[in-house]
Amino acid sequence: SESYYNGLGYGDSDCGMSSSSSSWPKLLIRGGTVVNAHHQEVADVYVEDGIVVSVKPNIQVHDDVTVIDATGKYVMPGGIDPHTHLAMEFMGTVTVDDFFSGQAAALAGGTTMHIDFVIPVNGSLTAGFEAYKVKAKDSCMDYGLHMAITKWDESVARDMEVMVKERGINSFKFFLAYKDALMISDELFLQGLKKCKSLGALAMVHAENGDAVAEGQKRMMELGITGPEGHALSRPPELEGEATGRAIHLAGFVNTPLYVVHVMSIDALDEIAKAKRSGQRVIGEPVISGLVLDDSKLWDPDFTTASMYVMSPPLRKSGHNRALQAALTTGVLQLVGTDHCTFNSTQKALGIDDFRKIPNGVNGIEERMHLLWDSMVESGMISVTDYVRITSTECARIFNIYPRKGAILAGSDADIIVLNPNSTFELSATSHHSRSDTNVYEGRTGKGKVEVTIAGGRVVWRHGELNVVPGSGRYIEMPPFGHLFDGIDKADASYLSSLHAPVKRGKVTT
Ligand code: URP
Ligand code: ZN
Ligand code: ZN
Ligand code: ZN
Fold first, then answer.
1. What is the pTM of this model?
2. Which residue CA neighbors atom 3 of ligand 1 most closely?
3. Quick check: CB of 208 below 6 Å from ligand 1?
4. Ligand 3 midpoint to CA 258 (Å)
5. What is the 3-state secondary structure (H, E, C) of 314-349?
6. Whose CA is nearest to atom 7 of ligand 1?
7. What is the pLDDT of residues 451-477, one digit of tens each?
8. Is ligand 1 within 6 A of the CB of residue 311?
9. Domains (ranges, CATH) in the chain?
10. Model confidence over 385-425: pLDDT tens digits?
11. DSSP assignment of 9-27
């Protein structure tokens, strides 16, 4: 049985969906410009049982089919957010958005799938995975899971194998920051990289030098800089650049692909660009906050305002954001996440006397699609096909779920948005769907509006109303050995053959 969610201000009281409750409606999205990463054309999209059945002009249907007119609008694959933290226990508290509220917000903003990070429980991967399956049981959109590796021993190595072979996880995140919490040493990182390679799983890295950050934090506290600005000052771009370069070099040494999460600075960007120039397989993921915000608000005299902007790696001086956008246009960076990790102002106030205690994280799951459209498509930096690639297709390819996700092709899941380029959006905590009482994009307006979101063949967002079903979201298993692993074995073989046989030497004679 389905219950249509109507609480907590999602939509108004009259919006229970009246159509059949156990089967999917048949849908025709008519007359829009259908955009995939490689091609766009004016066409209709016909959807049945949650799957795209056909994409072509002038599809004729019977009157039991719900028709959505998309004339003059873009019909695109729903966004996939590669980086979120819903219901995450972190820094002594829990994010306000759980899987249900975070996903509802995502759907209202045109994102139809996200990949969250399982945090192990007392270092146990299996316990962490089980905990996240419980957290995600009320999901209203499809989701996948990455897993964080926070310690290393034989049981972790064994569990990584179980996660990949039996639980649908194909990516592991290593933290080079958060000393005395999530951080691991280079020694353990190397073990993890080797294990990832053998399993065909993608290694992901939070790249900041955690030892130096701890030193920087001590320095700021000693100087009496205890407010949110101390957060940025204590962990400058150099520490991100250093850790990014180190992670890249170690992944190169092991010869396994690397995914750098939340690239926030030119320093990190330069390391990624250099590695790519040499042919190394490195993926850089900027997040929407890093692309469109800067660090200036951290100096706001009002603590509630300033603390909203505390995240790690921190927002940087203006200029880094523009460089990150430029890198997206040239392919040095390939996809955009959010790092959606929301805390209320009361939770942020845990750090009122000490910036080290401000829970790290900002919102973005609902805002990413609109902000990226406005700042990069509307400004002429990227094409609409690029937009689809950056917000959806690339993520699906990297995590090996393309073309089920990330495309509008016959046979793909019906995760579809209709965006009106002539409409406008406005972002505010008073109208957003996150449970957070603040929004780092407060008051921002722009061009382009997601008017319809279809998730798994259901219309979940239309006429400014959400119609979401707890439990309708599915766990999407992500298989190992995605395309980034193609040819790795050949490169290893040619490396080995280049070494020559060990030099034969006789006995040492004196
Ligand atoms: O500030 C952040 N990024 N919070 C979430 C945890 C992480 O490092 O991704
Ligand atoms: Zn209504
Ligand atoms: Zn991180
Ligand atoms: Zn994160």
1. 0.95
2. 312
3. no
4. 14
5. CCCCCCHHHHHHHHHHHCCCCCCECCECCCCHHHHH
6. 312
7. 999 999 999 999 999 999 999 999 999
8. yes
9. 1-510 (3.20.20.140)
10. 999 999 999 999 999 999 999 999 999 999 999 999 999 99
11. TSS-TT----S-SSSPPPE
